[in-house]
């Protein structure tokens, strides 16, 4: 085994280098594709509907899906708007990703339609649900935050 390793160390290092470069290229391409998608579709300006529905605690953020958007995109807009509406709420990117995913999962659990959205389909996020997602994100441990770090580069706008 030692002889095989000695004979093939250079080949192994070359393969590892190619894999590392390929991964870096793919990550850059995904990031560029996301930026291009935002430039083409025009990142819609969040226009939440925070009107009172049936009481002061029934506020919600409502968004219509644009081309290429899913529930995660709309959940991201709701978390962003909540953070603007609640200035003392500060989340690091890993926590924001968790809050968005938490909100998306909660929305999917209540959804009877397909998990995919039609263009123009409206999704509402109750402020209490957004607040719960933010509070859950703030309660993450250091290990959980570290596990989410790999996703930060894939999200445009952080």
The count of strands amounts to 2
What is the straight-line distance between the termini? 47 Å
SSE succession: HEHHEHH
For the sheet with most strands, the description reads: 2 strands, antiparallel
Strand content: 5-15%
Provide the spatial order of strands within the biggest beta sheet: 1-2
- Give me the Rg, rounded: 20 Å
Shape descriptor reads elongated
How many domain regions? 2
Helical amount: 55-70%
Mean pLDDT comes to: 78
- Structural class, by secondary structure, is mainly alpha
What is the overall number of helices? Answer: 5
Poorly predicted runs of 5 or more residues: 41-56
Oligomer: single chain
Summarize the model shown.
This protein has helices at 2-41, 71-85, 93-110, 127-138, 142-152; strands spanning 60-64, 122-126. It has two domains: 1-42; 44-152, no CATH class.
Structure description:
With about 160 residues, this protein is mostly helical. The chain folds into two domains: about 1-40; about 45-150, no CATH class. The chain contains five helices and two strands; from the N terminus they run αβααβαα. It has a two-stranded antiparallel ribbon with strand order 1-2. Helix 3 (about 95-110) packs across helix 5. The longest helix is centred in the first third of the chain and has 40 residues, at about 1-40. The radius of gyration is 20 Å and the shape is elongated.
Describe the structure using short key phrases:
2 strands; 5 helices; mainly alpha; about 60% helix; two-stranded antiparallel sheet; 2 domains; about 160 residues; about 5% strand
SSE blueprint:
Blueprint lengths: L1 H40 L18 E5 L6 H15 L7 H18 L11 E5 H12 L3 H11 L6
Antiparallel strand pairs: 1-2
Helix pairs in contact: 2-3, 2-4, 3-4, 3-5
